[in-house]
Amino acid sequence: MDFAVSEKMKTILGMIDEFVEKELIPLEPEFLTKPSTNLLPVFEEKRKMVKQMELWAPNHPKEYGGMELDLLEHALVSESLGRSPLGHYIFGCQAPDAGNIEILHQFGSDEQKAKYLGPLVAGKIRSCFSMTEVELPGSNPVMMDTTAVKDGDDYVINGQKWYTSSADGAEFAIVMVVTNPEAGPYLQASMIIVPTDTPGFNLVRNIPVMGHAGEDYFSHAEILYQNCRVPQSNLLGPEGHGFVIAQERLGPGRIHHCMRWIGICNRAFDLMVARARDRIIAPDRKLAAKQIIQSWIAECAADIQGARLMVLHAAWMIENVGKKEARKEISLIKFVVANVMQKVIDRSLQVHGGLGMTDDTILAFYYRHERAARIYDGADEVHKISVAKRILKEYEGKRVR
Ligand SMILES: Cc1cc2nc3c(=O)[nH]c(=O)nc-3n(C[C@H](O)[C@H](O)[C@H](O)COP(=O)(O)OP(=O)(O)OC[C@H]3O[C@@H](n4cnc5c(N)ncnc54)[C@H](O)[C@@H]3O)c2cc1C
User: Fold this and answer.
1) Taking 90 as the threshold, does the pLDDT of residue 14 lie above it?
2) Looking at the chain, which terminus has fewer C-beta neighbours within 10 angstroms, N or C?
3) Banded model confidence at residue 248, pLDDT cuts 50, 70, 90
4) Looking at the predicted structure, is the pLDDT value of residue 249 above 80?
5) Is 381 in the pocket of ligand 1 (CB under 6 A)?
6) pLDDT confidence of residue 176
7) What residues form DSSP beta bridges with 147?
């Protein structure tokens, strides 16, 4: 594996770092204390600046106006953007749109691409992904109650979903529904595009997450689909291929998430070190003089570096060996990086004392919202079991002395 960063990427990363520092981090105090909708005009201005700098949609296809960086290149971009919760959104590579763009590009019909893909990559509209149900385990998504039944030229959708992130203000949802209940468990579900203004698409509420319901892009909705009727041409990919497509969405998506988390770790770590250096805890003593704090600094530095190298390795595996062969590495980074991030944020918050609990720094926001990293896209335990099963299989028939 070559860790050298190309001259092209050095320039891009330099520009992104500067933009995040000068244009985005100064917006955070208002973002943390007021509804994000207040900032929408400012967000639009910043997005225009990013487009003018030709840094828009770094991971998306050139034919739709993106930069089409490869997975490793975008991993580095994702790390830089992760330093602010606004980074990915302002640069047009935010989840869940990023994953939806990938699957629309790969599986969308010409009509679907013309209608949704272009405007989505351009940042003119937003989308959401609606799979998890209230009453059934998201960890075992083959258990699903939401159905789409054919009626004339349409599908009629009924069911209750939640944690449909960013549904508030989205133009359409990609909804996972049971279309083929008689098929085997992994061939029962399909993905269907549902415009959010379709009668029967009912956004019940933005769910309060750690006490904050949020709004617009920064929210997670509960959705009730009640006789929600869409044309059969809204089916994405072949019928019964929902899980096949979902798998496609997850591999590169995990690299993006994990590198965003490394960016969060870097930010929390910088804040921790700066606070330890500045905070006077006795007339002649700074916090950084205490060995316990030094130990946290060293441990966090090692944890971040280890986690970062694991993610870059997994990205390299996906690009050079293939997504299927990289499944163990992808599962490993998912729970390792999520836990490293949680530890680093927690340590940094602790070093900040009472200040860490306020919204005067970004730490409390990260502490609240990034706890979910250990749950979504596969809970820690699910990934650990999957990794362990693969390892146990690798040892089948192996003689170990
Ligand atoms: C902030 C946030 C954003 C999200 N965004 C989206 C989104 O945009 N779209 C969407 O469809 N969903 C989204 N989700 C939902 C997410 O995918 C699910 O929460 C996740 O799949 C877990 O499902 P569950 O909540 O039903 O938990 P369950 O499946 O009920 O699991 C609960 C817990 O049980 C344990 N567990 C589960 N299975 C096993 C097992 N096999 N072995 C051992 N232990 C196990 C784990 O500790 C797990 O955390 C989001 C969730 C959060 C928190």
Assistant:
1) yes
2) C
3) confident
4) no
5) yes
6) 98
7) 158, 178
Q: Which amino acid is at 391?
A: I
Beta-bridge mates of residue 224: 160, 202
How many angstroms separate the Cα of 196 from the Cα of each of 56, 110, 314? 26, 21, 36
Name the residue of 139, 140, 142, 161 whose CB sits within 8 Å of the most ligand 1 atoms, as the mutation to test its pocket.
139
CA-wise closest residue to 271 among 348, 213, 160, 192: 348
pLDDT tens for each residue of 60-79: 999 999 999 999 999 999 99
Residue at 161: amino acid letter: K
Instruction: Give the orientation angle of helix 242-278 with respect to helix 291-320, to 10 degrees.
Output: 150
Residue with tokens 């580095």: 76
Quote the ligand 1 centre to 113 CA distance (angstroms).
30
Q: List beta partners, residue 176.
A: 191
| 3-state SS class at 389 | helix
Question: Dihedrals φ, ψ of 133, to 5°?
Answer: -110, 155
Distance 375 CA to ligand 1 centre (A): 5
CA nearest neighbour of 57 among 105, 23, 109, 107 = 105
Q: Tell which one of 94, 126, 132 to mutate to probe ligand 1, the residue whose CB is within 8 A of the most ligand atoms.
A: 132
Q: Is the CB of 131 inside a 6 Å radius of any atom of ligand 1?
A: yes
